[in-house]
């Protein structure tokens, strides 16, 4: 039986590839940020009254516990019930948020004093676009509801 060995050119090619790969890996940063997280300074939206809703940083006298902004629906409209909120959350709000931030999530919770929807974003750089789109939705809705916007780094709890 004869054993085959690699010709010297193949051995040189493999050794060179391993050496290049090891040199390459030492120059990479320890982590790569696929979606830029940004900072609150990236947000240009300013609290205030809008058409059909108010963009606020607090719930009246009480500051927001976790969120960055809250879109307060028109209080003169009838409040959305649980079924309507679920429909809004699943069929309208989640697709809007997900379209702008692939790591976005939504949930139902108490927002200020009423039941509402919370939108979790993974980047400060998406806040303005999400607030603008959701503001149109909240302002034109036939029912009043609130949306709180949180920004959290993906994977954080």
Features:
157 residues; 6-stranded mixed β-sheet; two-stranded antiparallel sheet; 3 helices; elongated
Structure description:
- With 157 residues, the chain is α+β, with helices and mostly antiparallel strands.
- It has one domain (40-151).
- 33% of the residues lie in helices and 23% in strands.
- The protein has three helices and eight strands.
- It has helices at residues 8-26, 82-100, 127-140; strands at 48-50, 53-56, 58-59, 62-63, 69-73, 105-111, 114-121, 147-151.
- The protein has a six-stranded mixed β-sheet with strand order 1-2-5-8-7-6, covered by helices on one side. Strands 3-4 form a two-stranded antiparallel ribbon.
- The longest helix has 19 residues, at 8-26.
- It is elongated, with a radius of gyration of 25 Å.
- The model has no long low-confidence stretch (mean pLDDT 81).
Brief description of this entry?
This protein has helices spanning 8-26, 82-100, 127-140; strands at 48-50, 53-56, 58-59, 62-63, 69-73, 105-111, 114-121, 147-151. With 157 residues, it is α+β, with helices and mostly antiparallel strands. Strand 3 (58-59) and strand 4 (62-63) form a beta hairpin.
Beta-sheet strand percentage? 15-25%
The major pleated sheet works out as: 6 strands, mixed
Question: Looking at the structure, what is the overall shape?
Answer: elongated
User: Distance between the terminal alpha carbons, to the nearest Å?
Assistant: 62 Å
H/I helix tally: 3
- Strand order across the biggest sheet? 1-2-5-8-7-6
Poorly predicted spans: none
User: How many strand elements?
Assistant: 8
* Count of distinct structural domains: 1
Structural class: alpha+beta
SSE order, as H and E? HEEEEEHEEHE
- Estimate the helix proportion, in percent: 25-40%
Radius of gyration: 25 Å
Average of per-residue pLDDT values: 81
């Amino acid at each position: 039986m004869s054993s085959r060995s690699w010709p010297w050119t193949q051995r040189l090619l493999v050794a060179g590839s391993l050496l290049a790969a090891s040199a390459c890996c030492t120059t990479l940063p320890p982590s790569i940020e696929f979606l830029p997280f940004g900072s609150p300074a990236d947000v240009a939206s300013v609290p205030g009254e809008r058409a059909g809703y108010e963009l606020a940083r607090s719930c009246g006298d009480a500051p927001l516990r976790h969120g960055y902004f809250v879109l307060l629906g028109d209080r003169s409209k009838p409040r959305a019930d649980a079924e309507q909120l679920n429909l809004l959350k699943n069929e309208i709000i989640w697709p809007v948020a997900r379209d702008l931030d692939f790591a976005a999530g939504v949930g139902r919770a108490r927002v200020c004093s009423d039941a509402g929807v919370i939108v979790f974003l993974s980047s400060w750089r998406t806040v303005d676009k999400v607030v603008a789109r959701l503001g149109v939705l909240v302002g034109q809705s036939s029912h009043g509801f609130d949306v709180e916007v949180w920004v959290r780094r993906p994977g954080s709890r």
